[in-house]
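Field log, afternoon session.

UNIT: design team B
ACTIVITY: writing a sequence onto a fixed backbone
BACKBONE:
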């Protein structure tokens, strides 16, 4: 049985989105249970929505939640009884195998470090997720946890990416650095210095610099960048995909001739949606924390939240932070 502590508070669409997503998850997977820390006023709504899945649902009382406009400092000092903090404490105590939060990213980072700590040798834990490509999925990190990073901290992310793959059975992942060009002299001083460190310490795992227009070629396993560049790249990609899917659907629906082939192109659109829709890739892991913590978009709807929960369950069943830490120590030792 996999137990997930879910921080349902702080999202744009309210906690009921998370309740319905948890219900869908438990309907499809009988080996999952959920712990929901909630303010007392929400317990009745949670019980009503979760219905027959209450035997696998545990509601825990908390006094408040982290606001989206809370600073990390405020969350650390004033939100010790928040739903986010309680979730992380449940994971630290072993009552939950992992945590999924829809809340404030900065707060999640500092509270995770408070309750769980960071892996030895990691200065800045980072957000990471796998993106669909022409070939194999691409692990991209950082996605917004750290706006500025040194070359040494970027190297730590390279080690983390390699360790994450090795913990899952891939002994030779190809890791690249995001840059504005592939030549050694391109990029900021930080990126050029990071490239030299990667080449020296990652050896055959390092695949060099990679430009943005070649991210989805499918020949890489991971790409490393600071959180500023990663967040912009991710959100630009998501926005472009959403626009392309909408445009394709609109063009197909507006054509009288194509309406005759509705069953065929509808099935094709569904296949494309399953492969590239941002809603299906909204869960991001917080790698470098001594625990299993993931984040989903604050704007997540029921569908996006459910996919993030399913992603979290898959991660817990295929690798955990202990195995990743062991691989990290082998690489850096």
């Amino acid at each position: 049985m996999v137990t997930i502590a879910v921080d349902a508070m702080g999202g744009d669409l309210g906690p009921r989105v998370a309740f319905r997503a948890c219900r869908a998850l438990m309907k499809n997977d009988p080996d999952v249970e959920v712990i929901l820390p909630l303010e007392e006023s929400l317990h009745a709504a949670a019980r009503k929505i979760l219905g027959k899945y209450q035997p696998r649902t545990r509601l825990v009382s908390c006094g408040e939640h982290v606001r989206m406009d809370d600073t990390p400092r405020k969350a650390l000092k004033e939100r010790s009884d928040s739903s986010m903090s309680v979730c992380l404490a449940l994971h630290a105590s072993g009552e939950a195998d992992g945590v999924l939060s829809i809340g404030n990213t900065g707060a999640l980072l500092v509270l995770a470090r408070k309750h769980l700590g960071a892996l030895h040798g990691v200065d800045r834990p980072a957000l990471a997720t796998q993106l669909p490509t022409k070939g194999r999925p691409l692990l991209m990190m950082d996605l917004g946890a750290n706006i500025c990073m040194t070359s040494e901290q970027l190297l730590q992310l390279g080690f983390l990416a390699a360790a994450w793959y090795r913990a899952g059975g891939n002994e030779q992942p190809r890791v690249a650095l995001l840059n504005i060009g592939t030549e050694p002299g391109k990029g900021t001083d930080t990126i050029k210095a990071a490239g030299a460190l990667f080449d020296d310490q990652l050896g055959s795992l390092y695949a060099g610099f990679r430009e943005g227009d070649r991210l989805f070629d499918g020949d890489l396993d991971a790409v490393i960048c600071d959180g500023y560049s990663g967040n912009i790249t991710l959100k630009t990609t998501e926005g472009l995909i959403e626009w392309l899917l909408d445009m394709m659907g609109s063009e197909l629906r507006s054509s009288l001739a194509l309406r005759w082939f509705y069953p065929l192109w509808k099935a094709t659109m569904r296949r494309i949606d399953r492969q590239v829709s941002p809603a299906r890739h909204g869960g991001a892991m917080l790698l470098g924390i001594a625990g299993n913590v993931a984040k989903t978009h604050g704007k997540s709807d029921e569908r996006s939240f459910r996919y993030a929960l399913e992603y979290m369950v898959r991660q817990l069943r295929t690798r955990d932070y202990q195995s990743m830490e062991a691989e990290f120590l082998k690489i850096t030792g």
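LOG NOTE: The chain has a mean pLDDT of 90.
NEXT ACTIVITY: expression trials, pending approval
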